[in-house]
Protein 1
Amino acid sequence: MITVTPYLSADKLGAYQDKLVDLYMADAALNQTIPDSIRASTEWLLRQVNCFYSNKIEGNPTHPKDLLKTQERHRTNNTEEMSGALLELLAHLETQIKAKEASVSLKDVCEQSFIKELHESFYVGIPNKFRTIKDKDGREVCDQDGKAIVVVPGEYRALEVKVGSHVPPNHNELLGYMRWFEQMFNPERIHGTNRIIAAAALHHRLAWIHPFQDGNGRVIRLLTDCYMRCAGFGGYGLWSITRGFGRNTKEYYAALAEADKPRQGNIDGRGTLSDAGLLHFTKYFIDTALDQVKYFSNLLEPRKLGIRIDYYFEMRAKGGLPDSSGVELPLLKIFARDIYRLLLEKGSMSRSAICQHLGKSEQTLRPVLKQMDSEGLISVKPKRDIELKLSTSSIEFLFPQLW
């Protein structure tokens, strides 16, 4: 019998119940405010943010500019020539896309098969040489026969592990714990704001179980993203709780460690783990989520975003503006700003409609549209309307302090 409290009742949260309401309201406001013209590009950007911060938490040293460059050119690169760090990033990005496209249902989001699928999707494209288990000193961990232990995509661990001071359940107990996890966190059985309380506990409890030999942190954060969508956050994907975790990794791990603590006497719940520790982590989770949705709401507020767009294109017209790697960007005519603002306001438009709105001939706009397309500011494809995009060079100006 498993004697772990799955998640806390709402009354244990006190005033934090009001914060839960604030969180849902802030998410709904962001979801309604963001223009459709920039939604897809913003969701693309947030995948990069999630990828960067989730891997940063695990010690991946890749810089955001390298992530963006890798994302731009990975289709033409030979994966055999890539580092393990870059391959992890690409695998994480692909797993996010698959998880979003799968549109996992309330019923399936906590199924073992889906959790294993997340793990398999992350590891399946990574060569064996980058899947070997290493100790804290970077040395390969070997089995009894002296062979390096390699992570098997989508399979639970077959060995015992120690994570810091925490010793997760024995590998022979994993199936029992994971069946318990499926039942306890099935969002079909949880309603209202209790789903966000469950999301916080789910994040810790799966980390505590530590079902896989490696990759648990990234899988847990990916699962948390999926669960947040199932918890009713329509704007999730326009904001990211993982960014909050990654901005202060020490605080994140400290909050998880609080929930790892065993029960402290008879007034600390009835399970083997501390209810007070879980309450601490749940409050941390709610505070982090609320901080992040407010940050992205402020970042994407139309008036402020418009000011930053004007600034970016005015600087591009004057010259001397560097990209993230320090290379000077080429001059761009000022009416590129008018094209960008028009597409932001109106959404995708035909070339002729853009010319009509701006009162300029197609001959005048053609070279500017071509340059904007080549830089990734817009997408120009035959027989399709011109679409707005976010270029790697504009992100740091349009979205300051993102990384």
Protein 2
Amino acid sequence: MKGIRRLLAASLACFGLLTSAVPVYAAQAPIHFADLNWESGSLITDILRIIVEKGYGLPTDTLPGTTITLETALANNDIQVIGEEWAGRSPVWVKAEAEGKVASLGDTVKGATEGWWVPEYVIKGDPAKGIKPLAPGLRSVSDLPKYKDVFADPETPGKGRFLNSPIGWTSEVVNKQKLTAYGLNDSYVNFRSGSGAALDAEITSSIHRGKPVLFYYWSPTPLLGRFKLIQLEEPPFDAEAWKTLTDSDNPDPKPTRSLPSKLSIGVSTPFQKQYPQITEFFSKVDLPIGPLNKALAEMSEKHTPPRQAAEAFMKAHPEIWKAWVPKEVADKVSAELK
């Protein structure tokens, strides 16, 4: 009888331990984060996941997809978090936000930008490497027809090559429409890379060989911190013209530079309501672009997995991420990082 009592007491004690030490929500399904396939997106995602897992005791995982499919999934609550959301850039996001299905939290990376770029040596030359200026008068997208032979497409004689984003990215649609709006379809090929890594590889290879290359890119990224690049001028931003660029079916897109960049964390509305503490944390995320670009460059050069790079960033810059969360949460995360 005493043995049964001891066993029952032990069982109750164990149950009490489980119910008190482990958060109630730990048994719930994981929070689904978007698996973003570019460096800054993957690094930011893992920083957020580490804090959610270690600081708040919530399980997470990632689900892959293109920008557009992931935004659709967020609107349906099939995923709950997009760690790097360029909010307001796609019709999918705009519609979902207007319907109250998604929300953008915070201003996570100030100084972010995107546009069309060329290496500095294309315009100014590089005497140290014996490179002469090939397009000394290139300043704006309106100058590009004059220099189509400089950026010659190896597969299409008489046309230049513009390196666009991979298919499935919102920026790919915008850039395709810009080629039409800027009157460049007759002089440039719209070359879509198979992935973000393939786009990086082609740009990097051209720069290492001192070859001219015209491409779309954005910041925060390791590429912009590693090479001397010049962004081409575009017409001033016009909100109505921007709508024609984000609509892939619009036959008459109008010229404008891209919507001013604001990076945030995209969440589904059900997630926002269910996890107010996580929502508050997300709204405070602020990643200085200098340390972030440096971390991205190291991650790229050393081929460091995003999770490992995120841990290294958090160890090197505790003053950054600890400002986003309560002290007790920061202490839990710090203990796990050691």
Protein 3
Amino acid sequence: MTKFKLLQLSEGISNVIRDAGFTVPSEIQEKTIPLVLAGKDVIGSSATGSGKTLAFGAGIIDKMNRGFGVQTLILTPTRELAEQVAKTLQKFSNYKGLRIQEIYGGVSMGPQIHGLRNADIVVGTPGRILDHLERRTFRLNHIKYLVLDEADRMLDMGFIRDVEKIIRQCPNERQTLLFSATISQEIGHIAKRYMKNPVHVSVNDQIDPSQLYQKYYDVPQELKFSLLVYLLKLEKKGVVMVFCNTRRNVDRVTRGLYQYGIDALAIHGGLSQNRRTNTLQAFHSRETLILVCTDVAARGLDIKDVSHIYNFDLPNTGNDYIHRIGRTARAGKNGIAISFVSSGEHSEFRNICREKSLNIENIIVPKSIDVLSVTIGAPSRGRMGGRKGGGKQNRGHHRGNNNFRANDRNKGRFDRRGGMREGRSRRR
């Protein structure tokens, strides 16, 4: 008898979970699954990688039967997270024949409309869900289970009104499960207004502090990219995530790395859905070991075995910092988190350290960086959209110290410009 069976799950789903290689539930699963089976509303606070999809999914799947219309709606902040959640739920619900439909923008509505006709579970982003509701291609009158996944991220991205519109169209007699890395005042408002005596569940951070080495470089703005190239070329192995605050910086850093012989891929909300999907597939298959991204990749996405986190741009808040570094130092493995701090950012960095009680070591920028003199030239071609190699004019002959000045101007606005927000005007 497995430990999952002890959580009051039926033999059917317990066997599926066991066959998938899971025997001992994570903390969030152990605390949440019995509550879901008991019909309780739940507010779960847990970090990425804690296993919350199975925490809410196992109980819901166990209680569902096929062919009664869409009984479960799961809202996620991004298309990638919707795909990830749907894939996980499909794996554990195949034995019941449940049909799961993903609903998000950036793709044609036709196949989604067709899939909704026979779906039992819908996983989607708020904007495209509202599109279907307004077109009456989707109705919520049979919803028994409503899940708000990464709720704080949805609110940060400006989805609070969309989320509330969707909740109000769901039947009053339903079970609501809300999962969020942080419980803000707005999260409390939603819980008070739309949930019934919710049970609060929180779990310890999954990061192992003893396995995580945090350091920062006090580096001039014009040398940040040079330092990044220098450090990446020192690493012969490892899975790396480089965080920027804006889409523009993600593209510029990725182009620059490619120019200097470092294979990296970019992911942000300005890319097409196909390209974003292909990027994540390449990263998961380890065709590329360096992912340059906005903060959306720090939340929800299941990216395993990350060895290095680079904060090329400082995060806006202490919570954002924790979400970023939370990608590494898991499951007993070592991890390194490296931050670049430039002129004008020291006060902000001290506030982050003070807020989260962080003790981050200051490392001196190597003198050889000045000799390396790497800059980001004009946009090269090849993988990023033009002639491969970029030509002689792109090989360090342009001044690089103005390339990232937009960074400071865009500080604090990355949810709108750097995250994967699906604005109503973009969804179609």
